[in-house]
Amino acid sequence: MTQASPILQHIVFWPLAVWIIVTAVGVVRLRSIVRSAACLMTCFVGIGGMYLMLHAEFVFAFQILVYVGGIMVLILFAVLLLQRAAGEELRHHNEHGGLALLVSLGFLFLFGKLVVFADTWQAVGGALPGRGTLVWTGHQFLGRYIIPFEVISVVLLVAMVGAIIIARTRGPER
Amino acid sequence: MSGIGLHHFLGLAALLFCIGLYAVLSRRNAIGILMGIELMLNASNINLVAFARFVRPEEPQGQIFALFVMGLAAAEAAVGLAIVLAVYRTVKSINVDEISVLKW
Question: Which of A47, A122, A133 to mutate to test the interface with B (most CBs of B within 10 A)?
Answer without folding.
Answer: A47
